[in-house]
C-alpha cells in the first residue's frame, strides 16, 4: 500500500481546480479555488451542438487541461504531463511519482468511477490521486462527489483509457514549484487580460460573447430540439448550476476571483469588471431556473425568457471583458 503523506484532501467545487489545489498545497502553495481558476484564465463559453449529440451543451470554461497549462506557464511551475495507449505504461506513470511521495493529477471519464452516483460519460474530468493498494486507488474529487474517495483499480483503468469527446489517452501529470517562482500576485493582471482577450477574440460564433448571443437564439427552440424535453432540459440546467461549475456556469467562480483581486489591487476597471460579473452570475442562475421550469412544464415561454436574458448576458460579459482588458 502506498499513501502520499500530508495530503489535504479538500474537495472544492470544480474538478480541475480541486486537483490543482491538492497538488499545489502539497508543494507549499495554498491558493483559493477562485484564484486558481482566475490565474488559469479558466473562464470561457461554448455553445456546442455537434453531429450525433443528443442535446446541445453549454460550456463555461476553457478546454480540459488548458486551465492547468495556463496556470503552470503563468506561475513558472514545472508541469510534467504523460499520455500513453499502453495500460502498463499508464499505471507506471502514476505509480512512480506516488511511490516517490508526490500526488498525481489524472484526466479521465468519470462514468467508470465507482463513487459517481450519476453515470454520465464526461471525458474531461480531473482528479488528484494520492495512493493505492492491491485493489483500490485513493483520489480527491470535488466536494459534491465526496472529497477524499476511493475507486477500484480496474474502474480507474477503464476511466483513463476511455475514448470519446474531451478524453485524453491515460493523461497523468505532476506539478513542481521552482526554487524561485514569480509572486502569484504579480500574475493576476496578465491572467485577467489574457482571459479577456481570448473571450473577445473567439474565432467562431459558438464561442465567447458571440456564443452566448447564439445560445440566446437557440435556447428558445430547445423544446422542439429535445428528444425527451423533461430529461434533456432539466439535465442541461443541472449541469449549469451543479455540474462542477461552482454555480452560474463558472461565473460565480470568476466573480469571486475578481472580488478577491479587488482586495489586492486598487483599480476602478477591476471593480467595474467585478460588478458586471456579479450581475452576470445572478442572471446565469436565472437562465438555468427558467430552463428547468420549461422542462418541467413544457411551456416554451420560459425558454423565450431565458433567450432574452442570454442576449443581455452577451452584452454584459462583452462589456465586462472590454473593461478588464484595459487593466
TrEMBL record:
Q: Which residues form the Butirosin biosynthesis protein H N-terminal domain?
A: 14-142
Q: Which InterPro entries match?
A: BtrH_N (IPR026935), DUF4872 (IPR032369)
- Which residues does the UniProt record annotate as the domain DUF4872? 155-324
What superkingdom does the record give?
Bacteria
Q: How is this protein named in the record?
A: Butirosin biosynthesis protein H, N-terminal
